[in-house]
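This entry is passed on directly below:
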Amino acid sequence: MTTHGGFEPVFCTIVPPHVLDKLAQAEDPALAGPARRTLQRDAFERTQRRLTTVIGASAVASVADGKPQRTIHDARHGTDLPGHKVRGEGDKPGKDATVNRAYAGLGATFELLLTAYQRDSIDGNGLPLDATVHYDRDYNNAFWNGEQMVFGDGDGEIFLDFTIPIDVIGHELVHGVTQYTANLTYFGQPGALNESVSDVFGALIKQYTLGQTAAEADWLIGAGLLAPRVTGVALRSMKEPGTAYDDDVLGKDPQPGTMDDFVRTGRDNGGVHINSGIPNHAFYLAATALGGHAWERAGQVWYDVLTGGELKEQAMFTDFATLTVKAARERFGDGEELDAVSKAWEQVGVRTL
């Protein structure tokens, strides 16, 4: 397998480490226990990902025929992957709602990529889409491990089933698209761009599935994931970074919306889940300025940059922003698309060259 800049899959989770760190310090063992176990499991899976990268993953046959090839497995609350096969492509829905949601989410991601961007699966060549549900016990995360999707059921106290928000499924699968294209380094600003691209297309998958315009969308990532006791609406907000939650246990959403509040930290791979709020907000501003369906113009510009071959693995915000301006001009000319993209980056304080 080859990608622009080399093949280096990474272990990517939807719940940021800083959220789990906060939970792990809770006085209530019902909250702290699952968070600690999730952090330990994530650390193990991250190490496994590095080993697989060194040793080499098993080859997966891809067939570019414009049709999804989905397989859902059930870990039965264990950690062996992929687990027991419970639904294959074309099989009828079963009684397990989690299995059915995972299957539908994989399909929705495949459909948006194919319909809007003529991309056949995440590798562009019909890569089969595999997922495992009911992973571990009270596992508070979902992740892409470079080869497949994995979903926890949540602890029921802070997080619910991770297949509930379709944008979480899309977000993680788009890490695979990035892996096969720009291969953005998972640290600092390149890592924040990696996370942001997944948020952007995760949001677009949800909007496409619901038939929403940019004005109708909520621009939340992970809405429906937080349990009723949590004071919050989602994991992140692209419309208003920093407002997704403000909870006694989770703390306050730390995402900045502009470069004025850029967070410098060595945690979370240099704040990849935190500073992603800045490019997220830029996309929101561009998409809402243009109106209509966000996947058609703003989304097309972002997709062109991600897959165009010019985005470097170590790209900074300025590099990405500059390429979006170039892509908007090349695809749409000197019109409202170029104006919307340029102004969006200006509003979040990111220079374009």
Notes: Residues 29-55 form the longest helix (27 residues).
